[in-house]
Records
---
Amino acid sequence: MKFVIIGLGNFGSSLGMALIDKKAEVIGSDIRMDKVELYTNKLTYAVGIDSTDEMALKTLPIKEADYVIISIGEDIGASLTTAALVKKNTTAKIIARAISPIHETILRAMGIEKIVHPEASFAKELANNLCLKGALKTMLLDNQFEISEVMLPDKFVGKTILELELRRKYNMIVITIMRNEDVIVEGQKTKSSSVLGVVPPETTLAKGDILVLFGKNKDIEAFMEKYG
């Protein structure tokens, strides 16, 4: 996957390094040349540009990227201008860092759907979510183990947990299942999500189920690469 990170401060650089660890292609940019020089040989490459300048911004491969992450720190004006220009020039998914409630409100009004309020401690978890194909949410427990919510692959609809043989084949277990079911509320059919609790191995899986898996990072990644 290809990521463009605009802003190589504490969060942006930490996210970039975490994505590199996931074998992703990461292009970093910052207006500060000391930051660019620091990460030139650590990321795929890094460039010094003013991202509020549309012509300069277009020199970044934002059209080819899977994600563009706007991680500009304290300069809200630069962040908003960059977000507007990125949205104008690419169809890639956009993630923006907000540093205040009003900053987030404006970003959402601009149509930026994924907004984060993180620092370095959140960067590794975000990198894992972005790179783990098909995962809806991931919680890292340490450097080896994680809990991931993944949409049930169509191939497994109608099978039981026992039939999947996840422990034997992938060294992971199903902690629980989240299931959307049709319910009638005031005469109207609507969807209601429920957690099935501790699920027995004979539980039959249904389309739309979300599996909550526990296992090693590499094992869940292998499973999602094959079925995600």
---
Amino acid sequence: MGRIQHIGKQIAWGLGYEVFGRKANRTLRSKLNNTLRELDINCVIDVGAWRGQFGKLVRSVGYTGRIVSFEPVAASFAQLQAATARDPLWECHRFAIGSEDGEREINVATLPGLSSFARPNGYCNHLFPENSVIDRTEVVPMRRLEPFLERYLDDPHTGRIYLKTDTQGHDLEVLSGAGNALQRTLAIQFEATITSLYEGVPEFSEYASFLSRAGFLAGGVYPIGFRRQAIVEADCVYVRNDWA
């Protein structure tokens, strides 16, 4: 480290900030690792868990605390259960998370990871001509997230929460159903649709506006699909403004 860099870091530390190199949070994995450690997260809420990929990711970066996963599609939930079977701190529930309690019909795609409460649009069918085909529908139970957040927030062993939601266009309803408990969550990760793949889903600007009103600041945007030079989808990490 050069002298100027060293002095700059010392000044930043004195002001309560930490300076990272340009490559520090270049990937979602590195951002996730830093956020979990810096915010001392002890509970990860995983909405739209599919087969447990995100839970495996947080374990792979060294996180050892509680994971709570939600997945409504029957076949995917069976695989999620298998993934969690030997992890006593990873629990899973078979229902959807939304803005209200009840039941709702979900479109199960040929590739279950593309399953959604919304229907795939023409662009989605163009990108994934085989995998986006609706194979069947399932009626699934739906619950608001707020009671679950409150339960874990009130426990000092699980009160520092990282919320991840990836529900193929349904994430704003997930966040809306968190109520006032959302503002006590330390960090939120969601999959933003930049170029829509589903009919009638919110635009990215609606998520940004909602989270800004809830007191969160953008911490990172990580593209996961492109259409020529345009981003199709991106994983976005937002951090509560008093911890940013």
---
Amino acid sequence: MGAVPSGSGRGSSLGYNVLILTFTSLYGYYTVPMQLTPAETRRRRQREEARRAILDATESLMVQSGGEDFSIRQLAERCGYTPPTIYHYFGDKQGLVDALLEERFARLLAMVEEVEIGEDPVENLRAMVDAFMAFGRRNPAFYRLIVAGSPSGVDRTPASAEAARERMSKPWNDLHRAGRLHDDDPLAASQSLWSVLHGLTALQVGRPDHEWAPDLNRVAVDAMLRGLLRPTGRGRAN
């Protein structure tokens, strides 16, 4: 086990830009990064703060313009970072938008991955629905962006969005395979459900000051599921 120097030539351990411990195991060698120096920690924090500020400002401008109709100069004025700094972190405008979509949809993916999956696909579906609507309420600006869609028609669906979609769709697909759907058109049934979910979420995001009924989402989703699913005689909307 030994420390690998960075080549800086300083004598103390703080002279290393990166400290790495190398271990030998039955499976070969692997490395474990050591704790960063205070200067490195500060630089990393500054990079993260800059990225977050730039992405937040990008989201705000996209909502305001209804898409990508904004300039890097406008973005620089909004976020407080210079155009060269923005280009340094994201390369170009397309890279900037792609990074925003990936980062925000990664939040949705993290939320649906936390959903505990049981044996009942109806309860699994309800849990996914709750996670999706909670994501919309926690990320109102980005949710408005999702609903608005891309005016250019260009599909920039990131990997995190596709992974979240697949995970949220599984309970519905399980119900379809089990013959639980009333309608022979699973696509129409699925779109009917998601239209209701988007409506509920969009209303609550757009009118946060309104006194919405505490059980609104549950009552609406249960009513929809009763109309879409064949009953089994167990539980609500089952």
---
Amino acid sequence: MTAVTVSLQPAAKKALWYTPARYMCPVHAPDQTALTSEYELKADALTCERGQRVLFQDLTLTIEPGQVWLIEGANGSGKTTLLRVLCGLRRPDEGDVLWNGARIESVRPEFNAAIAYLGHYSGLKEDLTAAENLRFSCALQGSDGDAAAALARTGLDIENDLPVSSFSAGQRRRLAMARLLLSPARVWLLDEPFTALDPAGRTLVRDLLGEFAARGGAAALATHHEIAVDGADIHRLEMDAPAP
């Protein structure tokens, strides 16, 4: 396992307002086969600003098959903003995000199919059961997914007929991870995926990341947890809090 650390220094500049993302990208039918084709998600000289501050400046990184990037830093250092930029939900103030060498705006359908984003909000239907949520997600894409297998893998009961509105925060997080398992996306972008999870749930996320990387997937996650992921090429991105 290789560990690579990058350190960023913020600076002060003008503000740019943006709308926060409150959902997870759509899911597709499950595909647990190896992701054999090569791909590359690249942040090319990104600069992002908030208020009178620069969150990060001239940030360049490349996410490739088998890699897991741990984006670390204090609250307010720009971890969530970076993930939203990488998945195309927010434009950087400077620089570009590239998918296989092309700006993501020019290859949007291909890019959207290749990326799965899980933010702070899970985007679950409160009045549906866990299984119904997964089936609904697959139906939106006109495809079939094995909801039972995804629920079993994430420790949820397929026979549970209670609506998601009755779920604990940890159960909701597990269900959000089950949605990832029904996606053929090559890159997972996860914002604090360990939030609300018990020790067994945190182990589950680490295992899922390792299995995904071993199949040729890649991930970038904002986290405050020190983790080891078997089967993954670990990289670290250290982000400093903006100067006052």
